[in-house]
Amino acid sequence: MANILMVVSAADSLTMKDGNEHPTGYWAEELVVSHQTLIEAGNTVHIATPGGRKPTVDQVSLAAESAGGEDRAQGFRDYLAKIDGELAHPLVLADVDIAAYDAVVMPGGHGPMADLYKDADLGRILVAADRSGKIIAPFCHGPAGLLSATEDGAFAFKGRRLTVFTNEEELGGGTGENTPWLVEDALKEKGAVIENAAAWTSNVVRDGNLITGQNPQSSEDVAKEVLAALG
Q: What is the Cα–Cα distance from 197 to 210, expressed in whole angstroms?
């Protein structure tokens, strides 16, 4: 079976437009659903973060109203407790050799907007993965991490088709008008071809080895598309 690298933000806050710090991290549903789907299919998943720091779960994502009910929220809490050992001791992103992996998966939450979007080590990993045709699968705010990837000063994913948490979703149900920057706009400005669907509906876009998902609702479908791509 496949070896999969799951890159998770190590940020626990995001500096907002007004200068205040907004508590954040990874979104529980996205990490849990994708990790569980990939593991249950028999794959090995290694979690890596900048500096090898334990990632922080966005507490909002564990609230019943965000998780789709208290039963789902409790299920996310239970799964995170089950893999807490892995989360507490992730790989150091700078030490990762992408040659050892078949795919890179990047769940979101607002954390990637604070660290992964400018992480040089992630950029190196993504460029090498793309050159080798390895699967790259960021979703929701995870595609912010693609912004770290440059070759000869140019955006490595320019012209590629992808989807991401939309401006509509961010402004209407994310962090709103105080959001410091919009990932959809940033990717468009770098030359990505954005293909979004209706807000809060699952949407997965595949362009060769690049698989992207629009929002938390896309978590399982992204993981399934990764499994299909890995064969």
A: 17
